Amino acid sequence: MYLPTQFDPKDAQVAAQVMRSHPFASLISVDEGGLPFVTHLPLHLETAPGQDGALVPHTLLGHCARGNPHWKYLADRAQAVVTFMGPQAYMSPKVYPDLARVPTWNYIAVHCTVQAEMLDGEAAKDALLKQLIADHEPAYADQWRALPHNYTGKMLMGIVAFSLKIISLQCKVKVNQHRPEAHARMLEIYDAGSPDEQALGKWMRQIGLGA
Predict the structure, then answer these.
(1) Which pLDDT does position 211 carry in this prediction?
(2) Would you give the DSSP letter of residue 35?
(3) One-character DSSP codes across 176-202
(4) pLDDT under 50 in the chain at which residues?
(5) Within 13 A of 139's CA, how many CA atoms are on the CB side?
(6) Sign (positive/negative) of CA torsion 135, 138, 142, 146?
């Protein structure tokens, strides 16, 4: 994606924070006709130690319905792109002290280039589902384990699981870092706004913009 220097946090842990707090991703592959094919799905992030010892994004785990042809595209062409969209909101030019300004849209996003590998077998699929359950509703784990095998087996047969090794990633935190004259007014608007706007205000403070 287009990533001006001022919007690049240059910190893989920021990307991991976005991916974990907004796990509903877009998985993008190339179909048989050479066009992008997109599946929207939740992904579980696994991290590994980076060069400085800090944990950084390493692998994404997910699944799609067996009836969804996306898994076939991943099997045939293993390299794909995954995107995560964090909070986003319009910003009015009224935040600037002068009138020669235009509106903009602020947002947080992560793009990953990934290498796919199919996860075969009931045990691997069950382990993946339990990781997703732990991410989103840990209390459901006992109910899943208590379901009869003839039911869970059918459910597992109906999905294709995969591991997506992260080859490279970009993280974009666009909150007008380069316009310090607007930060105070932006925070006033975001703090009183929608959940996405409030989240952008928190990001502004996290990276040191405003009070």
Answers:
(1) 62
(2) S
(3) -TT-GGGHHHHHHHHHTS-HHHHHHHH
(4) none
(5) 0
(6) negative
